[in-house]
Amino acid sequence: MELGLDPDRVLARVVELAGMISGHMAEVRLRAQEDGLDHPLAGLLADAITARARHCAGMLAEPANRG
């Protein structure tokens, strides 16, 4: 299905969003702790999401992995 979107712009935006996740996860984690959710699994989940987002952003940013 053709959406008429510029693939380079879409890819750049996806990389940008993936890069923003780590900062947002830190905020969400802090708010959760302030609200009483201080379970070790919450921290592990936040760390895993952040690591995966960084990995994906890195993979997408490499020219060899495009198209």
Descriptors:
0% strand, 75% helix, 67 residues, single chain, elongated, mainly alpha
Biggest sheet character: none
Beta-strand portion reads under 5%
Shape field: elongated
Work out the helicity level.
Answer: over 70%
Report the span from N to C terminus.
Answer: 16 Å
Protein architecture, described:
With 67 residues, this protein is mostly helical. It has one domain (14-61). It is built from 2 helices and no strands. The chain starts with 6 loop residues before the first helix and ends in a 6-residue tail after the last helix. The relative contact order is 0.15. The mean pLDDT is 87.
Question: How is this structure best summarized?
Answer:
The chain is mainly α. It has one domain.
Topology diagram in text:
Layout: H1 7-34, H2 40-61
Helix pairs in contact: 1-2
